[in-house]
Amino acid sequence: WYQIFQSIVDRHVPLRTKKVKSLQLPKWMTSEILAGIRQRNQLKLQARSGVIPWETFTHQRNKITTQIKQAKQNYFKQEIYQNKHDSKKLWKLMKDAVDLNMNKATPNKILDNTDLITDPKKIANIFNSHFSQIANTVTKESAHHQPNFDALRNFVERVHAKTKITIDQSLCCQYCQKSWNAITDYIS
């Protein structure tokens, strides 16, 4: 009985996939943009059926895309300016602007020298090898390098022209060397 009933229901009231809109619109979304999106969608249907030229749709599509980009840019500029002294809100804005959730996928292929690698374990080993060698490379390159504090001193003097700040080079060098030794001891 159930199968007969279900087949009748499926025939007369088929299931349809429907896109559910978000309950909360982005803060940069305006009524003008929403109206433009609706018009763009209608024009797309008309262009597909051949009622209007395809160029009419593409013109509206490009126009609304530009409006969306401009609205986002204006919104984030304004929010960043208003929250420039609140780092927590700034980082939240940055995450919203960049949309960090988009880039969480791991690569499915990688070029190692001239070889194309597709095996996930080999890809992981290549990344592991690369990032584990960074500390050794930095250690070797900086072993013969003496720190130059002129750029730092110039920056401090330029930013704080009225306030005199002196940097004791020997103290800084000792601190940097002590910190560097602690890092290299930890690595090895």
From TrEMBL:
Source superkingdom: Eukaryota
PANTHER family: ENDO_EXONUCLEASE_PHOSPHATASE DOMAIN-CONTAINING PROTEIN (PTHR47510:SF3), REVERSE TRANSCRIPTASE DOMAIN-CONTAINING PROTEIN (PTHR47510)
Name this protein carries in UniProt: Uncharacterized protein
Organism: Paramuricea clavata (Red gorgonian)
